[in-house]
Write a structure and sequence with these properties.
With 259 residues, the protein is an alpha/beta fold. It has ten helices and twelve strands. 33% of the residues lie in helices and 27% in strands. An eight-stranded parallel barrel has the order 1-4-5-6-7-10-11-12, surrounded by six helices. The longest helix has 11 residues. The chain starts with a strand and ends in a 9-residue tail after the last helix.
């Protein structure tokens, strides 16, 4: 049986891990290198690093921080933020990442997905989507709209349509990041995640809203997510990766054992 993955997320701004609610009001919570090492040692299945202001500030990702994190962990490591070209992607992989996460850059230039998949393989290409629940309209019939630049800019693009197109272009995984649920600790966006998981043939990673282990159980069982990103629930010490996994095992959700 394929195990479900738990993936801590390090949102990095000005060299520090930061956390907000609904992409706003961020506060610094720690050093990315130390936090990455802690999560690795405590049983995280993978790690995600987002340079959250790189796209909006139209600058390159902080390669030095990526390299420092990669040197401390030995689990799959996905990196995103400000990646606009094949050279940007190559630099991240050479710095130690196993996967490339593209978001705003892919919306602006969808060919970036196919170019990356051709150059590095679909297994390296993760399409991350910032999604907000809106009133349904012609361009967004599902009521789930794609935003870019850290949730600042609506694109008039339907999330269900974009998820399918992203996979057709070569994305090997999708991250469904709910702006509405982000940092609320009230649970994942089950409806959105489930609809996308039904539509695509690649792994779907839920993001935004984890507040207790039951929320991960819900998104794994009810929405059929393959993995779940955590941040606030673990950054502040309310729960550990090991305690979440212990709960999930008791509920017969398959997860990788803590060594």
């Amino acid at each position: 049986m394929v195990t479900k993955r738990i993936i801590p997320c390090l949102d990095v701004r000005d060299g520090k891990v930061t956390k907000g609610i609904a992409f706003k009001g961020n506060i610094d919570v720690g050093d990315p290198v130390k936090m990455a090492q802690f999560y690795y040692e405590n049983g995280a299945d993978e790690l995600v690093f987002y340079d959250i202001t790189a796209s909006n500030e139209k600058r390159d990702i902080m390669i030095d921080v990526v390299s420092a994190v990669a040197s401390e962990i030995f689990i799959p490591f996905s990196v995103g933020g400000g990646l606009r070209t094949i050279d940007d992607m190559r630099a991240v992989l050479l710095a130690g990442a196993e996967k490339i996460s593209i978001d705003s850059g892919a919306v602006r230039n969808p060919n970036l997905i196919s170019e990356g998949a051709e150059a590095f393989g679909s297994q390296c290409m993760v399409l991350s989507m910032q999604v907000k629940n809106v009133e349904p309209k012609d361009q967004v019939p599902s009521g789930y709209e794609i935003y870019i630049d850290g949730g600042r800019r609506p694109m008039g693009l339907d999330a269900l349509e974009w998820s399918q197109r992203g996979v057709e272009l070569g994305a090997g995984e999708l991250v469904v990041n709910s702006i509405d649920q982000d940092g609320t600790k009230s649970g994942y966006e089950l409806d959105l995640t489930g609809k996308i998981a039904e539509l695509v043939s690649v792994p779907v990673i839920a993001s935004g809203g984890a507040g207790k282990p039951e929320h991960l159980q819900d998104v794994f069982i009810k929405s059929h997510a393959d993995a779940a990103i955590v941040a606030s629930i673990t950054h502040y010490g309310e729960f550990s990766i090991s305690s979440i996994k212990s709960y999930l095992q008791q509920e017969n959700v398959p997860v990788r054992n803590i060594w």
